[in-house]
Amino acid sequence: MSSNSSAQSPVKSTGLHIGDAAPGVAKVDPIIIADNVTRTFGGLKAVDVDHLEVPRGAITALIGPNGAGKTTLFNLLTGFDKPDTGTWTFDGKRLNGVPAFRVARMGQVRTFQLTKALGLLTVLENMKLGAQKQTGENMFSSLIKPLWTKQESEIEERAMEILARFKLDTKKDDFAASLSGGQRKLLEMARALMSSPKLVMLDEPMAGVNPALTQSLLDHILNLKQEGMSVLFVEHDMHMVRHIADWVIVMAEGRVVAEGDPHTVMEDPAVIDAYLGSHQDVDLGVVTGRISGEKTAEAEELLAEIDAEVGLTDSAAYSADPEKNEDTK
Ligand SMILES: Nc1ncnc2c1ncn2[C@@H]1O[C@H](COP(=O)(O)OP(=O)(O)OP(=O)(O)O)[C@@H](O)[C@H]1O
């Protein structure tokens, strides 16, 4: 397994789609294909996706302003929530109606934030919880002691191997709650790998991570791809998206509003609009130029902020030093 150097830009996967990049575009080798997926809460359509394909063997970012429906879509695809309508397949198998634990067994896992309860377990115990197909889950085989003791030691061996890769092996007996924010994120990812997944879904992997651990987390995500896994992640950190994503899917108000490679997508007016949608207090028409009128100082400031937010910068390199990630205008 080769690792990516923090100083270099990672090698991007290209040629993932067929035809023009647009919402719902077909992929050469999709791992997820979703159709007509909707989820309503009260009167609000949180997810309203006509057609979506997630490419295999690539890193895909799911971005969009707060409330766009990203987490709800994650929950639906992983069987943690039920849609009002829709069908989807994972690796060619129909998944709607399949409960979360089966989805995970089929090779589609998502990371979870460490809850209070999981924080009271040790790092190693957390890892063991991530293992699939444990003999103890089967009543008959759980009665045969040699079977489960052998499996227990295999699971522990695998857990220690993965923990060593994530430099968490020396913390195996510590309570998970004692880890730093970044170490927790590493543990969440490490735990997901216990089941040898085909697709890893990460919910805001960078949230709350100290800059010292940023590069390590990025490298671990890039390594998942190098090992042949597909990655789908939700993230608000646009520098990270630009740096490691091969493909970007943009959601706003429940819909997919743009798709493409990170550079093209972040210059798409629909994407800029989607982000503007979260700043309801400013006259958006004036800001985007749809309505003629004098831009107020506040609007100018907002526009600059959004340029920065969607990554309209010259530099594609991600630096662990946040100072170096300041946009140049
Ligand atoms: N269980 C729920 N009950 C009611 N409304 C919900 C529920 N879950 C989500 N919503 C609403 O659905 C919409 C989409 O929410 P969701 O959390 O999926 O957005 P998101 O894109 O993940 O946002 P963020 O980036 O802030 O996490 C929001 O308006 C949210 O308030």
Your description of this structure?
It contains 13 helices and ten strands. Helix 4 runs parallel beside helix 7 and helix 7 runs parallel beside helix 8. A six-stranded mixed beta sheet has the order 6-7-8-3-9-10, with helices on both faces. A four-stranded antiparallel beta sheet has the order 2-1-4-5, with helices on one face. The N terminus and C terminus are likely disordered. It is globular and about 60 Å long. With 329 residues, the protein is of the alpha/beta class. The longest helix is centred in the middle third of the chain and has 21 residues. Strand 7, helix 8 and strand 8 form a beta-alpha-beta unit. Among the domains are: 170 residues, Rossmann fold; 58 residues, no CATH class. Adenosine-5'-triphosphate (ATP) binds next to strand 2 and helix 1. One of its GO terms (cellular component) is plasma membrane. Pfam families: ABC_tran, BCA_ABC_TP_C. This is ABC transporter ATP-binding protein. Keywords: ATP-binding, Nucleotide-binding, Transport. It comes from Mycetocola manganoxydans.
What is the radius of gyration? 21 Å
Give helix and strand order, one letter per element, not per position.
Answer: EEEHEEHEHHHHHEHEHEEHHHH
Major beta sheet, strand line-up: 6-7-8-3-9-10
Structural class, by secondary structure, is: alpha/beta
CATH architecture of the domain at 21-114 and 187-262: 3-Layer(aba) Sandwich
Fold-level CATH name of the domain at 21-114 and 187-262: Rossmann fold
> How confident is the prediction overall: mean pLDDT?
80
Uncertain runs? 1-7, 278-291, 312-329
Secondary structure tally: strands? 10
Relevant CATH superfamily of the domain at 21-114 and 187-262: P-loop containing nucleotide triphosphate hydrolases
Strand content: 15-25%
CATH class of the domain at 21-114 and 187-262: Alpha Beta
Bound molecules: adenosine-5'-triphosphate
Largest sheet data: 6 strands, mixed
- Helix proportion of residues, in percent? 25-40%
- Categorize the overall geometry: globular
Helix count from the secondary structure assignment: 13
Organism: Mycetocola manganoxydans
InterPro entries: AAA+_ATPase, ABC_AA/LPS_Transport, ABC_transporter-like_ATP-bd, ABC_transporter-like_CS, BCA_ABC_TP_C, P-loop_NTPase
Keywords: ATP-binding, Nucleotide-binding, Transport
GO molecular function: ATP binding; ATP hydrolysis activity
